[in-house]
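Regression test case RT-17, inverse folding.

Input:
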């Protein structure tokens, strides 16, 4: 009797686990959709910025954000992981990407900025230099103001000639079931890199056709005051803020997608295991009943002999 009762207890426990993982899957689905919606909300703003960018693209190299510091071999790496676990290989994939880069560029001195605590704890354990940690200040609700504060720190650090370049390591969101860890060149900027960013926001065909420009806009010859250089000094930081905000959104959407898939797999496995245990329970229960019936029949037959 204890055998099938134990199986019954295990079935109840596994079904409860399945309910929990299903709830976590639904929560991650909602959060992932919210992160995707955030990326769409600023398209009107980005369209206006793109028009200005196209009108000044011939002067981009004049900006200080396009100049690489050739006198330094130091790199600043911004690592974006998660504050929570249960998201499959999300954090491990980013860490592998960082380790791969460090091995391939062993001559570089690399300092780190951590966004979310999974990486900050890793940096401290490996005795690397962590110059800033935003883990405790960030949440699932992606705030542009907070993203801008990190972006401006990155920009100020780059303009200090201590670092030659700045890279961002994160999970690029492809779709719900595919997220790719990338090491993205963030600063110094390049014209090709900015064009790739706008193509990512609007779509390559949309960008190439310039369909978003009205006839009036195409004919307009802008008079830029006080100068292109000064306007660029205001425009480029805003563009960098937007680019970093998009990276955070992509990373957060990737995290929620990874957790959603992980919880779905856990739920499915729990249901399959519960089905197997249910079959074992029925067999054990049937065997127990058969044994009891056999004992009763044997007892009745023995009473007849008396």
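Golden output:
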């Amino acid at each position: 009797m204890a055998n099938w009762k134990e199986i019954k207890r295990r079935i109840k426990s596994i079904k409860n686990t399945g309910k929990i993982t299903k709830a976590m899957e639904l929560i991650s689905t909602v959060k992932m959709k919210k992160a995707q919606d955030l990326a769409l909300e600023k398209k009107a703003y980005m369209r206006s910025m793109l028009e200005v960018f196209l009108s000044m693209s011939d002067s981009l190299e004049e900006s200080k954000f396009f100049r690489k510091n050739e006198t330094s071999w130091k790199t600043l790496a911004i690592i974006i992981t998660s504050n929570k676990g249960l998201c499959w290989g999300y954090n491990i994939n980013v860490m592998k990407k960082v380790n791969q880069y460090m091995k391939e560029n062993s001559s570089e001195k690399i300092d780190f900025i951590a966004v979310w605590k999974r990486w900050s704890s890793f940096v401290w354990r490996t005795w690397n230099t962590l110059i800033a940690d935003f883990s405790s200040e960030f949440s699932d609700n992606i705030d542009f103001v907070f993203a801008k504060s990190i972006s401006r720190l990155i920009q100020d650090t780059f303009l200090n000639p201590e670092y030659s370049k700045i890279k961002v390591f994160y999970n690029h969101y492809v779709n719900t079931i595919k997220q790719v860890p990338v090491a993205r060149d963030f600063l110094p900027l390049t014209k090709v890199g900015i064009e790739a960013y706008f193509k990512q926001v609007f779509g390559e065909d949309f960008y190439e056709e310039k369909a978003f420009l009205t006839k009036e806009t195409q004919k307009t010859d802008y008079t830029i005051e006080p100068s292109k250089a000064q306007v660029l000094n205001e425009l480029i930081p805003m563009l960098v803020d937007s680019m970093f905000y998009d990276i955070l959104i992509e990373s957060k959407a990737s995290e929620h997608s990874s957790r959603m898939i992980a919880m779905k797999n856990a739920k499915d496995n729990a249901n399959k295991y519960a089905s197997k245990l249910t079959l074992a329970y029925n067999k054990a229960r049937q065997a127990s009943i058969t044994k009891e019936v056999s004992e009763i029949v044997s007892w009745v037959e023995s009473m007849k002999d008396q």
